[in-house]
Structures are given as structure tokens and as C-alpha cells.
Specification:
The protein is an all-alpha fold. It is built from 13 helices and no strands.
Length: about 325
């Protein structure tokens, strides 16, 4: 308790206990640190990447099977990889986040998570990821450090290139590739097309997400497509990337022997992406959160449902 809040007449050493030291963390962090950590790394956003990794595993499992424990290891690896990547992102961006009105209330800048705790979570998650990769096989373990380079590296790219969105897309696209390798022990054109689809999808909606920070990025010397090209240019680039996404998903159908359920899913994905771009105008970005969070969550879930339906009902 601060003595500045007490009237001078009441400040008396004999009648008042000594003030307690201020807590190192806010009450919310001490009460439920798991929730606080989950908010810090945006664990709910796992819905963007995990469904595509599970879809890749489902496609790879045709004819070879997928034991439940192996599927669980893929999920653990994805969760560990994403958590360590987001933890690292929050650590290296903490000073920028503190200066940006949109992000100043994030857990590290406002003191809900200490820097040492953030590092502990980040490193522990990396260990979990590497452990799951080791369980999934020698090739997965050998490629895991490469994946970490991409996962950590994308957080630094906005310091020197406007192509940072594609770096994020490549990092997230390693998830479906890793899931395929975990099941098949090899790589090929099918997972390559899926990587292209996921990478351009993620890159496209990350361009939209960066629209909210375009002025701040310019003021801090950070790079992004919106900061470089403005709102109209960013919307055009995002749309072009999503056209590539849909082309890759469409090309996957004949190559992977997928049928009507998959095609229907791609049509739904196309409708959702079209809607996403239709509700955003250069003069009106008021529905940016809906375009980024809601619709892209629907995209990943719809794609997974279509792949699983096609694999289960047609094969």
C-alpha cells in the first residue's frame, strides 16, 4: 500500500503496519497463470494452423494408417512449435508493443508476464516440440531445428523487409509439411502444394492484419506491405495471395485423388475468402477484426472437415 494514498495525519508508525512490497505480477497472473500465458501466445489462434496440419496428416495416412498416439504427437508438436514461436515473438517485440497503443496492453508490456517467465515458456515449448519431433522419427527430428529457424526468424523480418508476411506464411506452412513427413517419412508434390496454399493464405491475411499498424510501423521504421503500399496496395496484394491459395487447393484435388467432398470444401473456402475481401474497403476497415479472426477460423475448419469427409467417406 502506498503512503501517498494516506492522509498525512494518519501516517503514524506506531498505529500502521509497514507497507507491503508491491507484487511482482498483477493479481490476474498470480490467480491463473495458465490463462495469462495462453493469452500471451494467443493460444486460441491455433485454430488457424492446426487444422491444415491435421488435414495433411489425414491425406498422408491414406493406405498407411495413423495410430492415435502418432496423431497425438503431431498435435503436441504443432502446439509446442506455435507456442515457442509466439513466445519468442512477444519477447523480441516487447519494446515495440509497449509503444503501440494497439498492443500496449499485451501481457509483457503491462507486466502480467515477466520477461524471465516468457523465456521459460518459450524454451520449454521448444523442448516439447523437439521431443515430439524425436518421437515422430529421425527425419522429423533432423528437420525440427530448421523449422525453429523459420519460426523464430519471421519475428525479426519486419525490421528489414516488407516481405515479412511471406516469412510468416512459410513458417506456418512448415506445419502441414511436418505432419505429412511424420506420417509418410518423405516429402512430395502433394504436401508441397499444401504448403503453398497455407503459406499464401497465412501471408495474405497477415497483410490484412498489418493494416491496423501501418502508421505505427512507418513511424518506427518497421516494414510491412501496408506500410510500403498503403491500404489499396495491401488489399490488392492480399487478394492476389489468396488467389494463389485457391489455385493451389484446386490443383490438389486431381493430384491427390480427392473428390466431391473436398471440392465442396474448396468452394466454401473460396466463398469465405471472397467475403473476407468484400467486407474490407480502402475507405472502411471497420470490419477488419471480423475478416481476420472469424472468417479465417472458418476457412481452416471448413478445409479440415472437407478433407476428413473425403478421406473417410470415399476411401
Amino acid at each position: 500500500m502506498s503512503t501517498s494514498a494516506i492522509p498525512p495525519s494518519d501516517v503514524s508508525p506506531p498505529s500502521l503496519p509497514p507497507p507491503l512490497p508491491p507484487p511482482s505480477l498483477p493479481p490476474e497472473a498470480r490467480a491463473n497463470p495458465i490463462v495469462t500465458f495462453g493469452k500471451m501466445v494467443k493460444f486460441s489462434h491455433t485454430i488457424f494452423a492446426l487444422p491444415f496440419a491435421l488435414a495433411a496428416a489425414a491425406l498422408a495416412a491414406r493406405g498407411v494408417g495413423l495410430p492415435l498416439q502418432r496423431l497425438a504427437a503431431i498435435v503436441v508438436a504443432m502446439a509446442g512449435a506455435r507456442t515457442t514461436a509466439m513466445g519468442f515473438n512477444r519477447i523480441v517485440d516487447r519494446r515495440y508493443d509497449a509503444k503501440n497503443p494497439r498492443t500496449a496492453n499485451r501481457e509483457i508490456p503491462r507486466g502480467a508476464v515477466s520477461l524471465s517467465a516468457a523465456w521459460a515458456l518459450t524454451l520449454a515449448s521448444a523442448v516439447v516440440f523437439l521431443g515430439a519431433a524425436a518421437y515422430l522419427g529421425p527425419l522429423c527430428l533432423a528437420l525440427a531445428p530448421v523449422a525453429l529457424v523459420f519460426l523464430y526468424g519471421y519475428s525479426l523480418t519486419k525490421r528489414f523487409t516488407a516481405l515479412c508476411h511471406l516469412a510468416l506464411g512459410l513458417a506456418i506452412a512448415s506445419g502441414p509439411a511436418g505432419a505429412w513427413i511424420a506420417v509418410r517419412g518423405s516429402f512430395g508434390l502433394v504436401p508441397g502444394l499444401l504448403m503453398l496454399a497455407v503459406g499464401t493464405w497465412i501471408g495474405g491475411f497477415d497483410v490484412l492484419y498489418a493494416l491496423a499498424d501501418r502508421d505505427f510501423d512507418r513511424s518506427m521504421g518497421l516494414h510491412s506491405i501496408p506500410a510500403r503500399l498503403g491500404v489499396p496496395g495491401a488489399l490488392a496484394v492480399s487478394g492476389a495471395l489468396h488467389v494463389v491459395t485457391l489455385a493451389a487447393l484446386a490443383a490438389l484435388a486431381p493430384l491427390a485423388g480427392l473428390g466431391i467432398f473436398y471440392v465442396a470444401g474448396v468452394v466454401i473456402v473460396a466463398a469465405l475468402l471472397t467475403w473476407e475481401h468484400a467486407i474490407l474497403k480502402p475507405s472502411d476497415l471497420s470490419r477488419l477484426n471480423m475478416a481476420f479472426f472469424n472468417l479465417n477460423g472458418y476457412v481452416s475448419v471448413a478445409f479440415l472437415a472437407a478433407v476428413v469427409a473425403d478421406v473417410v467417406l470415399r476411401h
